[in-house]
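During the reporting period the student researcher (J.K.) took over the structure-prediction task from the postdoctoral fellow and processed the backlog of single-chain submissions. One of the processed entries is reproduced below for the supervisory committee.
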Amino acid sequence: MSSSWREEMRADRAAESAERRMDNEAALDRRLKAEEARSRRAREERAHHEAEKRRKKRERKAAWKARVDWVAVNTDLAAALTVMVAGMVPAFYFQLDALMGAGVFTGLAALLAFMLEAGAWAATAGEVKAMKAGRAIWPYRTAIWSFTTAAASINFAHGMETAWWLGAILAASSVVPVALFHMVMAGRHAAKPKPDAQAKARAKHEKNRRRHHKSVVQLAERLVSAAPFGELVFEDAFTTAWEIQHGTREHGLMPALHAKRHASRKAYADALDTANGSPVSIRGRLLEVLHQPPQTAPVEPVKPQRVTQIPPSTEGASKAPRKRPVPPVRRKGDSVPFHPVVGAVAAETARRSVTATVNGHHH
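J.K. obtained the following structure tokens:
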């Protein structure tokens, strides 16, 4: 009994030891996994931080390089902007000093001085945009020099209290930056490539077409919009619209012009016939032949052509010997004669051919 109890106790202790060992191993495994996860997150955060640092460094380097490249390409504009800053600061200061010396409250004096300087440069920025867009620049130019003249006058009067040369320098601090900036922008605008002659001629042609043939252009645009995108080009649509409006695909030709052209050709041919005393045009020759007096000589009747190559009938073939076919013989009256008009046209064609051959030999 005691032996069995001891064995059960040992078995229980062994089971508890095994359970504690498994719990310890599981806890250790969890700690190891947690530590590994923390270490992995730390490595990922460090890698992300390093990548972010490298990205920002590349961006700063690219931004700095872009500024350097911009200055290298726009040296004139960069110099003008530097002069602007160098002139704006003293101009603003001396305007403020002059206004305060005249008894204007400090805050109001600052606002007035800022209005004059900032107004001139705001109008200058508007002029640059108008110049790029091809709009009128005279309103901006008027505002610029109005503000600049007022600022320069205040600075000149303030400097003259000390010396004339000081007044001139203070006035120049308001005028020179604006003038220099305008010189730079005017040079850049003049240096822009002008549209080529072909593009200008094309634009003028499109403008004239829309003005002269407004209804045809509108119909062509509707045909283009009705067709699937990209399937019908405007020129083909214009040809179709012209045919719908005027009955022909020949651009520029209208029914009235068509009738006038034929009338002019007829008048020209009649004038040639009258001047030469005889018809020299094909039309005149045809009319002459068609209106000839009738001939008095009898016209022989047209005889039917005999066809001898048809084999004889099979009836009585056993009684009569078979004859060889005789080839047909052309006789007078077998065919219908040509109309006299055809002879006149052939004669005219032959005359033109001979004339062209002679002219070619002369050349």
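The committee noted the following: The chain has three domains: 1-73, 75-191, 203-279.
J.K. will present the remaining backlog at the next meeting.
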